[in-house]
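Milestone 3.1: sequence recovery, worked example.
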C-alpha cells in the first residue's frame, strides 16, 4: 500500500520557529551562566518552596480551573474587579489566546519589529497576517508609523514595553497619542513582562491605561521578576468582555495547582521581591555604564537585559561568550541580548565585550 501522511495546515510551512535561550556549554574550571533567557538568577522568594511542597502533595487532583485564590490575590494587589482578570500559562499563553479571540484569516495583527518573537508565530498559527513596523533607529517603537499602518483589517496591536529584546520603553504620553488614533474596535495589548524592572517615570503605566480604555488589555507574568519561569503562570488585565473571552479560550486546568500556590506565595513576599529587583536594576546600571565606557552605544534598558548591535560579528561574539561558559541570545543578524545575572556573570560578560568594543578597548 502507498505510504500516506495526515494532511496538515499549509500555515506550518510559513511558521517561524521559536528559539529558546540555550544553556551554556561546559568549560572546565568556570561556573556556567545562562544569560540567554532573561531568567531571574535568584531562587524562589521566601515561602514559595514551602507552598510548592504543600501543593505538590495534592497533584493527584486537578487544579482549580478558575485559579480562584490567585485571582483573589491579584484583584486585591492591583485593586481590580475579579472579572477583569484572566490567568494563563505565562503571559505567552495569554498572548496566544489574545490572537485567538481577535484575529483569524483575512485579519491583521500589528506590532513593532524587532520585538517578542512569539508575536508572528501566534499570528500565523491563527491564520491572520502579521504586520511588522520597524523600530526607530534608537530601538524604540515608532508609534506614528504603527498608527499609519492600521487598516480596516487590523484587529489586534501588540505594544511590548519594555521591549524584548531591545529593553526600551514606550512613554505614556506617546502611548496616549497612539491610542487616540486606534479605532475603538481594535484590541491593544500592552505586554509588560518586565514591568517590575522599569525605573523611568515617563514609561507606560499599563494598568492605569487600561482603566480608562475598554480596548486596552495588559499582560503580566510571574516568570521574570518573580522567578517562576519553570511553573508557567501569567495574568491578563482587561475589561469584562475581553477578559471573559480570554477565559473561554484558556486550556482547561492549564495553570497547575503548584503554579497557583507559588504565585500566591510570591505575591506575599513583595518586600523580598523588591529588594532583589533593586539589586538587578543596580547591576543593570553598572553594566550599562561599563559598556558605555568601552565605547558601546546602547539603547537605555528598562528590563533585566541589555541589547548589543554587533553587525557581522554576532557569531564570533556568541562563540567568545561560549568559550568562557556564558550563554547569550543572538537574534539573526540584528544583535545579541544579554540577561543581567549574578555579579560574576556580568563581570565575565564585560570582559568579553571589551574585546569587541567599538572603541577598541581591550
Amino acid at each position: 500500500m502507498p505510504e500516506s501522511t495526515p494532511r496538515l495546515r499549509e500555515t506550518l510551512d510559513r511558521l517561524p520557529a521559536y528559539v529558546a535561550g540555550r544553556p551554556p556549554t561546559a568549560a572546565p574550571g568556570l561556573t556556567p551562566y545562562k544569560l540567554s533567557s532573561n531568567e531571574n538568577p535568584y531562587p524562589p522568594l521566601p515561602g514559595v518552596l514551602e507552598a510548592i511542597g504543600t501543593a505538590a502533595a495534592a497533584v493527584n487532583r486537578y487544579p482549580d480551573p478558575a485559579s480562584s485564590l490567585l485571582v483573589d490575590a491579584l484583584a486585591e494587589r492591583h485593586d481590580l474587579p475579579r472579572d477583569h482578570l484572566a490567568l494563563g500559562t505565562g503571559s505567552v499563553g495569554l498572548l496566544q489566546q489574545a490572537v485567538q479571540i481577535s484575529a483569524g484569516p483575512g485579519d491583521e495583527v500589528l506590532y513593532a519589529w524587532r520585538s517578542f518573537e512569539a508575536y508572528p508565530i501566534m499570528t500565523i498559527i491563527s491564520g491572520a497576517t502579521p504586520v511588522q513596523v520597524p523600530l526607530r533607529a534608537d530601538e524604540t517603537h515608532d508609534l506614528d508609523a504603527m498608527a499609519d499602518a492600521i487598516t480596516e483589517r487590523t484587529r489586534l496591536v501588540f505594544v511590548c514595553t519594555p521591549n524584548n529584546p531591545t529593553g526600551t520603553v514606550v512613554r505614556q504620553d506617546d502611548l496616549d497619542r497612539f491610542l487616540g488614533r486606534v479605532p475603538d474596535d481594535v484590541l491593544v495589548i500592552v505586554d509588560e513582562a518586565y514591568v517590575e524592572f522599569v525605573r523611568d517615570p515617563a514609561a507606560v503605566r499599563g494598568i492605569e491605561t487600561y482603566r480608562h480604555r475598554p480596548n486596552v488589555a495588559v499582560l503580566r507574568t510571574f516568570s521574570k521578576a518573580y522567578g517562576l519561569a519553570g511553573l508557567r503562570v501569567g495574568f491578563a488585565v482587561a475589561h469584562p468582555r475581553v477578559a471573559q473571552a480570554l477565559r473561554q479560550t484558556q486550556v482547561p486546568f492549564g495553570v497547575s495547582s503548584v503554579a497557583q500556590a507559588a504565585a500566591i506565595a510570591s505575591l506575599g513576599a513583595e518586600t523580598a521581591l523588591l529588594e532583589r529587583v533593586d539589586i538587578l536594576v543596580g547591576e543593570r546600571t553598572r553594566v550599562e555604564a561599563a559598556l558605555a565606557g568601552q565605547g558601546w552605544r546602547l539603547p537605555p534598558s528598562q528590563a533585566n537585559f541589555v541589547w548589543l548591535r554587533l553587525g557581522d560579528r554576532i557569531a564570533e561574539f556568541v562563540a567568545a561568550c561560549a568559550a568562557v561558559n556564558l550563554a547569550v541570545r543572538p537574534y539573526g543578524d540584528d544583535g545579541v541580548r544579554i540577561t543581567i545575572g549574578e555579579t560574576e556573570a556580568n563581570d565575565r560578560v564585560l570582559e568579553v565585550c571589551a574585546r569587541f568594543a567599538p572603541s577598541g578597548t581591550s
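The chain has twelve helices and twelve strands. Residues 270-294 form the longest helix (25 residues).
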